[in-house]
Amino acid sequence: MPRKRPTINDVAQASGVSRGTVSRVLNGQANVSLAAELAVRRAVSETGYVVNRAARSLKTSRTGSIVMVLSEPQERLFEDPNFSVLMRVATNQLAERDMSLVLMIADDVGGRERVARYLRGGHADGILLISTHADDPLLEAIERSQVPAVACGAVLGRESVIPYAAADDRGGARQATEYLVDRGRRRIGMITGPLDTPGGSLRMEGFTSVLGRKVTKRMVVHGDYTQAGGERAMHRLLEAFPNLDAVFVASDLMAAGALQALHAAGRSVPGDVAVAGFDDSAIATATNPMLTTVRQPLDTIAEETVRLLIALLDEQDVQSVVLPTELIVRESA
Amino acid sequence: MPRKRPTINDVAQASGVSRGTVSRVLNGQANVSLAAELAVRRAVSETGYVVNRAARSLKTSRTGSIVMVLSEPQERLFEDPNFSVLMRVATNQLAERDMSLVLMIADDVGGRERVARYLRGGHADGILLISTHADDPLLEAIERSQVPAVACGAVLGRESVIPYAAADDRGGARQATEYLVDRGRRRIGMITGPLDTPGGSLRMEGFTSVLGRKVTKRMVVHGDYTQAGGERAMHRLLEAFPNLDAVFVASDLMAAGALQALHAAGRSVPGDVAVAGFDDSAIATATNPMLTTVRQPLDTIAEETVRLLIALLDEQDVQSVVLPTELIVRESA
DNA sequence: TTGAAAGCGCTAACAG
DNA sequence: CTGTTAGCGCTTTCAA
């Protein structure tokens, strides 16, 4: 017969002090005698006491949970290497503070409405945003909710209001582009991501900053971070810019699609066309040839993101961080 | 100045009824006059009232949250197509019942301990397990916690105690193997998953059930569901069984690794060796050649899993479900 | 340093 | 059908 869950009263009784003292021990407050503290700790482990969060939350009006809001459509999310890393890091770091991670998907009106209600209901102490687009309607609800938010990857246009940790997208793109140039490529095209994401616009900026005024409209096409989109984009690029000898693709997944398109068009890689990707995700070693790509320090990004949020919850001042990338040379360029 | 969040009292006042009646309306109970109900609904939207879950939870001792426990190591989880689908479906379905999804990672001692504490603390109304291994120490903690649990994919050895929804792994493996046989392949090897997972043992059973006593030890090697593992396994298989003309691989990711190994060994696919995968995950179309593979109805599996859990929470009787797979023929076999 | 006591906002049992 | 009421388990004054 499973006994009823012990409450703080049981602990108080077992340790011979009052509820108040137990609470003080539990919350690590100073004004407690060593004897009392020891007695309480013993009683806690004897009784198997675990704090009732609902009761605590009712009293403190803090919930002990953080929402991670996913506003990407499904396909992208799934392929997003940021995602799983961030999730793991966040879960672990938050657990250390006895907080938990609630997941919400907000890629349609209903989802956004739910998130807004959730925040309005005060059900979360903080918000973790991941690859959020510049014009996401959710951002307004988030601001209105007054709940502290941080982002993994900058939220374009809100860089100053939503602290973030991110890779140096511009620098990484520059690395890849310079590498292509150094290898003697002269007619370099690019497939970008959606321009309302940092990976979309900043990686394009990095690309054009290297090539300067040599970049023309026909050399750049826009993709959507999906593999099929990358394939289509590559076809378009080949049409607009048939004699290209290299392409920088803003994500590995799109690069995999581009590889297929090149293959279908009878171009050899890297012989005819060199291909460089971005992310260094799992797929980069699954393609043939394997992708030369730009690695982001995902672990660090994730850790920093969570660190920012925790600092924010503690009402400390926070500063966004941008982390360096690394070019990983494989076979495709 | 953001006003304090309205409580049920504010709604009661605004609608001219008592707290009790408001609560009844909110919880959809029958004994309420139409007039009262209307007044309450109006007051709710006027005041912007959102229920305080902590208070409700304190009273009802239900928490309104479900934990999704991930016990896979990182790499696998990330590549697991089940995962994102299940997450999305779960989030949506649960949101309809005003419940939320809490994520916990339990792939080491610390993680398991946290999950156990969380459950002991009564912080969750239900548990969603995903690709849990047979001997996972967490299972004991889960059973002890008495919290209703369901699994996405059977938990070997607990099929009768933890309801699940899953693809027909055995049948799918049979489909793939029969297809290879039908294409005239005679020397067929297999790379399995870990045998303490249903995808590991059942897919192997399907394979051997087709080939019967023709299967020998040297034709089967065991992988770990990673790409690198698939590559290693293929090398071992080529060593043990050099004249094979086909291989059935228990996951697409491992199949991608196998493709690399075959390529390195100078075997053409499907010319020298036909390759069939399992999952029909994103990577199946990213390889060259693209993978012939077995598709699992992930959406349905996820939906069914969540449906089972909800039924369990409602104290209905539940029955595990096994869903049919489909062979997707592409280029590799 | 500690105990006593007042609620946090809600639901459900009871009385009407 | 509806109002009243008694807590759920906890934190946090306030006194001592």
UniProtKB/TrEMBL annotation, chains A, B:
Q: Name one GO molecular function term.
A: transcription cis-regulatory region binding
Sorted keywords for this record are: DNA-binding, Transcription, Transcription regulation
Q: Which Gene3D superfamilies match?
A: 3.40.50.2300, lambda repressor-like DNA-binding domains
Cite the HTH cro/C1-type domain residue spans from the record. 7-34
Q: Is this entry keyworded DNA-binding? A: yes
One Pfam match, by short name?
Peripla_BP_3
User: What range(s) does the HTH lacI-type domain occupy?
Assistant: 6-60
Q: Does the keyword Transcription apply?
A: yes
PANTHER family assigned? HTH-TYPE TRANSCRIPTIONAL REGULATOR GALS, LACI-RELATED TRANSCRIPTIONAL REPRESSOR
Q: What is this protein called?
A: DNA-binding transcriptional regulator, LacI/PurR family
Write down the species. Glycomyces harbinensis
